[in-house]
Specification:
Layout lengths: L1 H14 L3 H13 L6 H13 L4 H13 L6 H13 L3 H15 L4 H14 L2 H18 L4 H32 L1
Helix pairs in contact: 1-2, 1-3, 3-4, 3-5, 4-5, 5-6, 5-7, 6-7, 7-8, 7-9, 8-9
Length: 179
């Protein structure tokens, strides 16, 4: 199947940051009359994420998908969450987590790990705590208390907390040195 091969090449071009390959694959798809699908768009969204084009570019890609009648999937939304999280847009990222829960009825545990990491990177212990406890409540309510999910979320939470505390310590040390 040509579509599968093209989508595979698109994902490879994103992983290798090879824009020439990506451009050639898109031209090949167009010349063969192949319309993009969710997998195609997710590759393009990942490219925007890797190039740090921001959540606005990701949102525009999601809107274009919808205009073409292509439904974004959970992966599409997780890319948006990651973009928001990288930009420190914790509230927007959390709203996107809610979309995964409400529209896809799927476990957002991976997305919460990304969100906790963003809180840690920005030193935002308060939001980190909020996201951590919200994720634990989700596992309690919807996942039957799955011990492996708890372990994964605790691992993400602890790493993020260590990052946040380290950043706070460095800020204090640097602030002390300046004054």
């Amino acid at each position: 199947n040509v579509r599968v091969a093209c989508n595979t090449l698109l994902h490879a071009s994103v992983a290798s940051s090879n824009d020439t390959l990506m451009s050639n694959v898109v031209k090949l798809m167009t010349s063969r009359g192949l319309t993009p699908d969710t997998i195609t768009y997710n590759a393009l969204l990942r490219r925007s994420l890797r190039r740090r084009e921001g959540s606005v570019a990701i949102k525009e890609g999601l809107e274009e998908m919808q205009r073409m009648g292509i439904a974004p999937d959970q992966t599409s939304i997780e890319i948006l969450i990651h973009s928001h999280a990288c930009q420190g847009q914790i509230i927007d990222a959390e709203k996107a987590v809610d979309v995964i829960i409400s529209e896809y009825h799927a476990s957002p545990c991976h997305a919460w790990g990304t969100l906790m990491g963003a809180c840690g990177n920005s030193g935002d212990v308060e939001n980190l705590s909020h996201v951590f406890w919200r994720s634990i409540e989700y596992v309690d309510e919807y996942c039957g208390g799955d011990i492996d999910l708890y372990k994964s979320l605790i691992d993400h939470g602890m790493r993020a907390l260590c990052e946040a505390l380290a950043r706070d310590s460095w800020r204090r040390i640097l602030h002390r040195d300046v004054s």
